[in-house]
Design goal:
- The structure holds two protein chains of two kinds.
- Chain A folds into two domains: 149 residues, no CATH class; 70 residues, no CATH class.
- Chain A starts with a helix and ends with a helix.
- Chain A is flat and about 75 Å long.
- A two-stranded antiparallel sheet of chain A has the order 1-2.
- Chain A has 13 helices and two strands; from the N terminus they run H-H-H-H-H-H-H-E-E-H-H-H-H-H-H.
- Chain A is mainly alpha-helical.
- Chain B is mostly helical.
- Chain B has 13 helices and two strands; from the N terminus they run H-H-E-E-H-H-H-H-H-H-H-H-H-H-H.
- In chain B, strand 1 and strand 2 form a beta hairpin.
- The longest helix of chain B is centred in the C-terminal third of the chain and has 38 residues.
- The chains are: A mainly alpha, B mainly alpha.
- Chains A and B meet through helix 1, helix 2, helix 4, helix 6 and helix 7 of A and helix 1, helix 2, strand 1, helix 4 and helix 7 of B.
Chain lengths: 267, 350
Amino acid sequence: MNKMQKALHELSEMDELAARSTPLHALHPAAKLITTIAYILVTLSFNKYDLSGLVPMVLWPVLLFQISDTDVRSCFYKLRIVLPLVMAVGLFNPFFDREIILRVGSVGVSGGVVSMITLMLKGLFCLMASFLLMATTKIDNLCAALRSMHFPSMLTSLLLLTYRYVGVMTEELAVMTEAYHLRAPGQKGIHISAWGSFLGQLLLRSMDRAQELYSSMRLRGYHQHFHFAANRPFNGRDALYAACCILFFLLLRFISISQLLGGLFVR
Amino acid sequence: MHMADALLAPAVAATMYVASGTAAGISISKLKKDDEASKLPVMAVTSALVFAGQMINYTIPGTGSSGHMCGGMLLSALLGPQAGFLSMIVILAIQCLFFADGGLMALGANCWNMAFYGCFVGYYLIWRPIMKSKWFGSDKNAQRLRIIAASIIGCVLTLQLGAFSVVLETSLSGITELPFGAFCALMQPIHLAIGLVEGLITAAVLVFVYQSRPELLQCVDPADGEGAKASLRSVVAILAAVALVVGGGLSLLASSNPDGLEWALFGNAEEGYAENMGLDEDDFGVQSSAADAAGSIQEKTSFLPDYAFPDSEAAVGTTVSGIVGSAIVAGVAVLICFAGGFFRKKQKNV
């Protein structure tokens, strides 16, 4: 399976996840979007040494993964993209920040190690939150919610159209790449002699098709605005969900649950 | 170069959202004003193609490694800077939402680092001036050379700017202990090499488009010159060699001498900051009343997380309970997972 086929697989997997029906899927997309943004903001606001304060933030995504019956493995699979840069930045911390800030038994742990772990946890938690949003919300519904929040229609329309063509284009290129490699076995990528023509030919064909597509859209009454199948109205249940979640995040932000729980067992 | 959420502080992420949002707003109003909103399907198809095209590996001769296409320059050369910028935003949004490449809160920063520089700086400062100039002459050969030069210079410059922005945003967020200068020295040379390769690949695609359908390119007059056909391979090879020599030389210089900002930050200290800046040490020095006043204002207004660790004794005193508490939280999380599994099994059995 080449890179493009893997991407197609990931896209269809996300579509399938978003198409299920669970209590979380039933919530209004705006409520989910607002709570996700609030969660990420609160997570990012933790001090880099505040590891014990940050850890309880895991409870919200873990709970939602269970409620939405979502397999956490597909989320962790995406870590391969997020972690390298985060690790590259965080791995330097132990070398530059060597002050011992806590001791576990006789082993001293430096501030750099703590801040590196905090950074990685932040990356993981934010990924889990974003993944949950897309695993429980269809892109059409999300765009409709964005439109209702007065997000520019040009961007939402472009996002939807692009999302539809991403599948088509990726599939086309996957076939082309497969065909190229069958004729050039053992070659790692596209040879320099075909750099321009490989993508260029598809680019020209696609741009012509896009013009035809636009003409056909105009004939069917398109006037630069997509008409979304409207989401159901934002009701009290959605507001209650968003309010409870945000309150929970604030509670975790300002009260160290770990310290409190630990204090019950350790003097 | 996609930044994850964890690399940004909320204030920096919000600032970058405002900056990218403003650029997007201006682009949308410009497209509407010029009645170019009809470009939408073309923008969508082209951005979908660029999205997929960025996954193609192009073999770099003689190295065994591969490179990718530079989306921003390609889109702005085909669609114009505004439409190109919006298309790049959408590509980055899809990468972030469906592939976890970049983060939801880091989207503003990623749009700035990869779309703004590639589309606006690359187009207005590089592509348009070079394409409208008479560099290399006025025949078709010269036009091809201009496309190649604009693509390579544009990709190198915009990637350098993007990489510098990543360093700046991460450092401002207080995420890394890596000194600013060392971080720059790590990021800039890597992206110099990446920019060269991306520039060559982008040039190859744009030259192909020029040879087949020149009217599709921005700032290119299809009626320009009907001269002899150039040997593209030799032109690419010459420019690559020149770029490598220049780039390699520059990176050597960059690694042996601190850059301007680094010099300003650290180099001056030895020779006396106040002396160099022409300041009075008593009024503006580190121990001055002005510094104390600024410190107290900063303490009150600081929105970024305070990265100074609280007094170490108290910290050590509370860490044990913190560790135990964290372990309990982890236990609760595992319990939630088990409970979820238990109820799901029960539901299936029913």
